[in-house]
């Protein structure tokens, strides 16, 4: 009986506690998230003259009662916690009170969800019945979701709300969705649907949509493209200035074109600065020369590779060799191959033959090949090799450097029989290998026979690769292939994944003269220096690592195609480029 009496007295005390109102206590930390809805509901009750839908008024009252009850339990718990000794085990009444408080919290959450559903339903019904005051009232609660129906209703029935924050936020979001949808159409080649989406977004004050409409019109409708790019420019799309400059150039309005290039260049657009440099170099006078130098310098300082190369050449003309080297090296690192010949010549003149050899080997001009031949002939930084020199002089001749023809004839007498014999032996060995392969297969191993006979050919022995440092392929001045530089390779031991990698045999370099080169193997990416400099990660095969959105480890930098997946089809690379572009736009607009 004593136990039952204790339990009954405990329950009675809890009942009394739950029935007590909170003495003007603020909401507890756990319930503070409901403070705004509490404020809004109480304002509806206390403000005279406001028409409140009956269902909303009823739900507000119900929710406030539920909230006050949960807060009362939290208040009582807080009071007991202050008195409790943390070193002593909690009393049964405290544990029961805590359990009831948690139950009240869950009931409050359920009531809140019910309130959210109801207020959204009331808001949509008010739109249907054209009750503007009720729509405005429901939207004063953050629990009401501003939908397309609200947007259309405000647009048609309540133009005074066009500057309303919720209206503008939704309009911006909706316009962005239209742009993304248009980009999806554009990626499938459906320009008609794409332009429809972009124009709708443009009506919603989306400047990127105006820019995209301008781009689509550029191919066939120059005047329309100009109209849309002007709108985009006026609304803050800086890229449109370059497009406008090009379009006015097509319209044969050079002064207007230059004005847009100038505007972009003054805003530190490196490409526009380089174009102005090119334009000023067409006229030779003191004023034009000064302007050309000014713009090419700024273009280089802003990291435009062609600007770096041209500025380096300009400094070279002014006899500022060390400064010229600095900018030419930057241009070379950023992929300007023409810088190799200039740097090779500079280091050759400085008698720094080691560096000269590196750059001249990479260079593709006849003059560079001539200098390289000179180095092999005289043993400048390399071992004398008359046959190598002879071949380079021949190469220089084919690349249009006529002076090399006499040197090639002169080297015919100097090249040793041993060097010639080594070359002839290599050719005989290659011919024997091909003859042996044909004999084993019964047919010449060409693509037509492989398809028609369904044969399988397994190549044994060493595999050769184009030399990475020399880019492998040798072409003449008319871009016709004349040969290939190769290195022999072997397969390494298999790694943990069971995959073997190709290793180059040192000192196995050789050249093969050729009229046609057929790609029979894949390739490894040749990663530029800026990947490591900007923290862009690559895997052990040299391919750039990306996530599902084609974004690299450097935020805002995207990759696709062969640099990401290795050797593949051109159409695959193009498709990934479109996908990456779509994700870039989504990122910029989010």
Q: How would you describe this structure to a colleague?
A:
The protein is built from 26 helices and 5 strands. Residues 1-23, 450-463 and 467-471 have low confidence and may be disordered. The protein is 63% helix and 4% strand. By secondary structure, it is mainly alpha-helical. Strands 1, 2, 3, 4 and 5 form a 5-stranded antiparallel β-sheet that branches. The protein folds into 4 domains: 2-153, no CATH class; 169-396, Serine Threonine Protein Phosphatase 5, Tetratricopeptide repeat (Alpha Horseshoe), CATH 1.25.40; 461-516, no CATH class; 529-589, no CATH class. α6 crosses α7 (165-187) and α19 (366-378) runs antiparallel to α20 (386-398).
Brief account:
The protein is mostly helical and 590 residues long.
Secondary structure elements and pairings:
Blueprint: H1 2-19, H2 35-46, H3 54-83, H4 92-128, H5 132-139, H6 148-157, H7 165-187, H8 191-203, H9 207-217, H10 222-234, H11 240-250, H12 254-266, H13 270-281, H14 286-301, H15 305-317, H16 321-333, H17 338-349, H18 353-362, H19 366-378, H20 386-398, H21 404-414, H22 417-441, H23 447-453, E1 463-466, E2 473-475, E3 481-491, E4 502-504, E5 510-513, H24 529-533, H25 562-565, H26 570-589
Antiparallel strand pairs: 1-3, 2-3, 3-4, 3-5
Helix pairs in contact: 2-3, 3-4, 4-5, 6-7, 7-8, 7-26, 8-9, 9-10, 10-11, 11-12, 12-13, 13-14, 14-15, 15-16, 16-17, 17-18, 18-19, 19-20, 20-21
Q: What's the CATH architecture name of the largest domain?
A: Alpha Horseshoe
Counting structural domains, the number is 4
Secondary structure: number of strands: 5
Q: Quick one: CATH class of the largest domain?
A: Mainly Alpha
Strand content: under 5%
Shape estimate:
elongated
Write down the overall mean pLDDT: 81
Count of helical stretches: 26
């Amino acid at each position: 009986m004593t136990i039952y009496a204790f339990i009954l007295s405990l329950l009675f005390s809890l009942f009394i506690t739950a029935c007590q109102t909170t003495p003007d206590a603020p909401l507890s930390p756990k319930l503070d998230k409901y403070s705004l809805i509490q404020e809004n509901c109480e304002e509806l009750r206390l403000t005279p003259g406001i028409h409140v839908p009956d269902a909303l008024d009823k739900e507000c009252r119900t929710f406030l009662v539920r909230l006050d009850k949960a807060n009362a339990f939290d208040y009582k718990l807080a009071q007991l916690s202050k008195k409790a000794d943390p070193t002593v085990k909690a009393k049964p009444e405290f544990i029961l009170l805590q359990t009831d408080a948690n139950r009240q919290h869950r009931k409050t959450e359920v009531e809140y969800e019910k309130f959210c559903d109801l207020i959204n339903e009331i808001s949509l019904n008010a739109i249907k019945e054209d009750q503007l005051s009720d729509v405005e009232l429901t939207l004063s609660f953050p629990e009401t979701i501003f939908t397309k129906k609200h947007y259309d209703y405000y647009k048609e029935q309540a133009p005074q709300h066009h500057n309303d924050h919720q209206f503008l936020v939704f309009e911006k979001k909706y316009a962005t969705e239209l742009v993304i949808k248009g980009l999806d159409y554009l990626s499938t080649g459906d320009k008609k649907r794409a332009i429809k989406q972009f124009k709708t977004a443009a009506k919603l004050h989306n400047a990127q949509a105006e820019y995209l409409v301008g781009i689509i019109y550029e191919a066939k409708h120059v005047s329309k493209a100009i109209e849309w790019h002007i709108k985009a420019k006026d609304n803050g799309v800086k890229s449109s200035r370059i497009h406008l400059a090009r379009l006015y150039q097509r319209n044969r309005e050079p002064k207007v074109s230059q004005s847009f290039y100038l505007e972009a260049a003054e805003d530190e657009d490196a490409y526009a600065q380089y174009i102005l440099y090119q334009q000023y170099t067409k006229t030779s006078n003191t004023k034009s020369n000064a302007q050309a130098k000014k713009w090419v310098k700024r273009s280089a300082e802003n990291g435009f590779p062609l600007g770096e190369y041209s500025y380096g050449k300009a400094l070279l003309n002014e006899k500022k060799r060390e400064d010229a080297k600095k900018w030419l090296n930057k241009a070379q690192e950023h992929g300007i191959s023409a810088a190799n010949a200039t740097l090779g010549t500079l280091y050759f003149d400085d008698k720094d033959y080691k560096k000269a050899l590196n750059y001249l080997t990479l260079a593709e001009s006849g003059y560079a090949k001539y200098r390289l031949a000179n180095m092999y002939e005289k043993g400048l930084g390399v071992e004398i090799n008359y046959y190598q020199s002879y071949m380079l002089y021949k190469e220089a001749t084919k690349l249009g450097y006529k002076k090399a023809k006499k040197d090639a004839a002169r080297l015919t007498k100097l090249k040793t029989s041993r060097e010639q014999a080594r070359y002839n032996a290599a050719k005989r060995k290659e011919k024997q290998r091909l003859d042996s392969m044909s004999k084993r297969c019964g047919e010449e191993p060409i693509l037509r026979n492989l398809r028609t006979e369904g044969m399988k050919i397994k190549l044994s022995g060493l595999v050769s690769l184009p030399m990475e440092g020399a880019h492998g392929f040798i072409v003449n001045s008319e871009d016709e292939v004349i040969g290939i530089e190769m290195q022999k390779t072997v397969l390494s031991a298999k790694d943990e994944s069971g995959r073997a990698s190709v290793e180059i045999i040192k000192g196995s370099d050789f050249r093969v003269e050729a009229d046609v080169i057929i790609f029979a193997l894949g390739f490894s990416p040749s990663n530029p220096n800026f990947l490591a400099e900007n923290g862009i990660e690559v895997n052990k095969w040299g391919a750039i690592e990306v996530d599902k959105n084609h974004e690299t480890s450097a935020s805002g930098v995207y990759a696709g195609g062969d640099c990401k997946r290795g050797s593949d089809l051109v159409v695959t690379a193009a498709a990934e480029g479109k996908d990456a572009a779509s994700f870039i736009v989504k990122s910029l607009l989010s």
